[in-house]
Amino acid sequence: MSKKLGLVLSLTLTTLFWLTPAAAEFTIEITQGVDNPTRIAIPPITQSGRALPEDVSNIVSNDLQRSGLFSPIPRQNMLSFPATIKEVYYRDWRILGSEYLVVGQVVENAGRYRITFSLVEITGGRTVFTKVVDGGSTQFRDMAHYISDQVYEAITGIPGAFSTRVAYVTAYPKNGSMNFRLMVSDADGHRERMLLESRQPIMSPAWSPDASELVYVSFETGRPAIFRQRLATGAREQLTNFKGLNGAPSWSPDGRKLALVLSKDGNPEIYTFDLTTRQFSRVTSHFAIDTEPNWTPDGKSLIFTSDRGGTPQIYKLAIASGRVERLTFAGSYNARPRLAPDGRTLVMVHRDNGNFHIATQDLVTGDLRVLTQTYLDESPTVAPNGAMLLYATKQGDKGVLAAVSLDAGVKFLLPARFGDVREPAWSPK
Amino acid sequence: MKTQLLKYGAIISFMAALLSGCSTTGSDEDASASTTMPSQSVTTGTVSTQDVSGTTLGTDSAVARVFYFEFDKAVLNAESRAALRLHAEWLKAHPAVNIRLEGHADERGTREYNMALGERRANSVRDFLIQEGVNAAVMEVISYGEESPAAMGSNEASWALNRRVEMK
């Protein structure tokens, strides 16, 4: 954990980023949660009664609420504010109907902070765990998300994804032309940072598997080209400059290659690009559109969109053999595939009665399930724990992000204050 | 590029020259003077058309430089083909002029698929011009997919305006 926080610290200290507080920061509107969310209480976590620079317990509370699986007890309803297990009066929490309680306190030592926190099961009257997390004075948000991850995993059995980040593109009119920005924020929309600003379109951000870099498409040269950018330093490199399409980059699970789309040979084909040898290798050969490649978790196959059957559908290509298999058959438009971490749940854009929605297809049973009922839904991106996905949708004429759990039980919107927000990409860790 | 880019106005100058029976080509000065010409009228139903009939040439409208398409289609309609034949004649007469064909899609469907669709539409225009005898080397195709809409609304009228190829 200390190693991880060290990485975060190096990110927050860099001066290469323009800080844009509240530029597109999100307010979260939960539109649907589970029927019986787990009631949990997180009283204030303080340093011997003194407030911290960040309200850690409030951040944990918001994280858990946003998962849709928890209903945090409002602070003003609490009868006591215990900081340690010894201070817990179970009766205080049983009265409130709380099933779980998280207590914690902070100790400072030479500018470093340690939070000792415990998860208590009220109904069983037992301590589930006691853990510690360390960080510097600028890392209370990271420590809070770490606490959320630990609590979420202990109760649901699924690793938390609260310490992850999201990349996305914003667009809004400025001085008579469109202004495009490539942004990265925490998964809860806080600590938004700008990586690139351009008057030409920016598209298709995708993460490296170690979450230290992004690849994306930028039109800044007057043509679409694929760029790679390191988050810690802001350093960028243009990777492609071919005639025609240079698009849809996707990083291989081992980090060594990209899959991407080029039309230099006449029509859109999928290539792999070896980041070490700089060799391009064409892997599709069809006169139809082949695009939107994404790697399977084992790195051996690509799933992609093709209209070789007459309408856009999703196919799977075994890279070694070149064998192509069609995966989707329901409906006249299935595109931009992603796989959940289980490698079995296909996530895609599916046209349903003329409307574009996010759907899943179980690749074993073939069951198709439409997850969303919003408008013009696109760009689904699955959390690394496979519990939720983010996607882009429209509210009125405005592009916003929304989230839905893969079982469709939890839904929420993340409307930005202004401008269009689009193409979310959830970091892989 | 060894040659200048064809500008909107150059085409318009060409039409003016054609109408007046003059055989000279438009200069850059002519082009800049002509950029205030009214833009094409476009119907906003499910199928868009341009005024490119012979009678239009007698009015102060110019030959269409924007060509519209149906959803997920890259087939040129009759109006577009008629306009492109006129462009082809002019381009063959002015082989030093380069053009840029910018393909676009409406916002429905996925962004990278729409990049491919925009390119397919621009290729339809390019291929038609090649058929008509225009040198392929003077044409550059760029797709913007759905990233650079002509109309901002999320409705059929805007979508019809956005499924297009622009000749520049």
From TrEMBL, chain B:
Protein's membrane topology: Lipid-anchor
Subunit structure: The Tol-Pal system is composed of five core proteins: the inner membrane proteins TolA, TolQ and TolR, the periplasmic protein TolB and the outer membrane protein Pal. They form a network linking the inner and outer membranes and the peptidoglycan layer.
Biased amino acid composition, Polar residues: 27-38
Keywords per UniProt: Cell cycle, Cell division, Cell outer membrane, Lipoprotein, Membrane, Palmitate, Signal
Keyword Lipoprotein: yes
Protein name: Peptidoglycan-associated lipoprotein
OmpA-like domain boundaries: 56-168
HAMAP family membership: Pal
Signal peptide coordinates: 1-25
Keyword Hydrolase: no
Region (Disordered): 27-49
Residue stretches of biased makeup (Low complexity): 39-49
GO term, biological process aspect, one: cell division
One GO cellular component term noted in the UniProt record for this chain: cell outer membrane
Annotated family: Belongs to the Pal lipoprotein family.
Taxonomic lineage of the native organism: Bacteria, Pseudomonadati, Pseudomonadota, Gammaproteobacteria, Cellvibrionales
Localization in the cell: Cell outer membrane
InterPro entries, per database record: Bact_OuterMem_StrucFunc, OMP_bac, OmpA-like, OMPA-like_CS, OmpA-like_sf, Pal, Pal_lipo_C
Species this protein is from: Porticoccus litoralis
CDD domains referenced in this protein's UniProt entry, alphabetically: OmpA_C-like (cd07185)
Function text: Part of the Tol-Pal system, which plays a role in outer membrane invagination during cell division and is important for maintaining outer membrane integrity.
Domain of life: Bacteria
